[in-house]
Amino acid sequence: MKKNNIIFFIILPSFLGFLAFATSNSIKKDGSVTGKDVYRLNCAGCHGEGRSGYQDIYPSLINIKERLSKEKVLEQINNGKGRMPAFPHLSKNEKDAVIAYLFGKKEMIVEISPANLGEQIYRSNCASCHRSTVNDPKPPNVMMMEPAPLAGVTKRFKKDRIFKILENGVCYMPSFNHFALDEKEALYSFLQSLEGKGEPSRPTMGEMCPMMMRKK
Q1: What is the rounded distance in angstroms from the CA atom of residue 207 to the CA atom of residue 75?
Q2: Taking a C-beta distance cutoff of 8 angstroms, is the pair 102, 61 a contact?
Q3: 22, 32, 201, 204: least buried by Cβ within 10 Å?
């Protein structure tokens, strides 16, 4: 076998694997998503992409059907509980789809508006710790120093830096590397819409950590 053919057969599986990952971790252009996608976009930031939770802070959702009924899970999605915020921005179909996924039922395909994707990601993953503006009330999940309000963050940090923070986490902020590129772009666009709406006048304590860790 020629050397070029050997290289081709080595590279092809890797490329196909990457393509499958990119496809599975991104909503379709028509806005259709599975219950697993709804979970990944709204729940995985705290409970983990594998549903295993995080220490004693965020419980594992594996085999949740052995501990809670579907009705109880829906109640917590609607109203929140403890550190978990409510998710009123999710549609009924999205809630049904994620519950079906958690309970191991037949996969449901639902639609999410691509135009609202960034706001949904923000509300489900960022708003429980970050205020949008300095005028908003303190979020429920602030454990140490308060994270910075995100109004104007797109002016204080370059886009690639924000994406790097999302991918790796920083200080006590977890990683959100389960977001696909188009989902990060949607979130970034929503963050841009917050510019000029109650921005902090100077870097807050919650913003000093990522600033100090910024690569030169």
Answers
A1: 34
A2: yes
A3: 201
CATH number assigned to the domain with residue range 31-111, chosen from the 4 options 1.10.150.170, 1.10.760.10, 1.10.1660.10, 2.60.40.10: 1.10.760.10
Q: Spell 92-113 as b/e; 16+ CB within 10 A means b.
A: ebbbbbbbbbbeeeeebebebe
Dump pLDDT digits (tens) for 18-54.
333 334 455 666 668 899 999 999 999 889 999 998 8
Distance CA 81, CA 103 (A): 19
Number of residues that make up the chain = 216
The domain ranges of the chain are 31-111, 113-200
Q: Please, are residues 129 and 206 in contact by the beta-carbon 8 Å criterion?
A: no
Q: Name the DSSP class of 110.
A: E
Cβ–Cβ < 8 Å for 110, 101 = no
Report the largest interatomic distance among the alpha carbons of the chain, rounded to a whole angstrom.
Answer: 67
Question: What gap in Å lies between CA 187 and CA 194, rounded to an integer?
Answer: 11
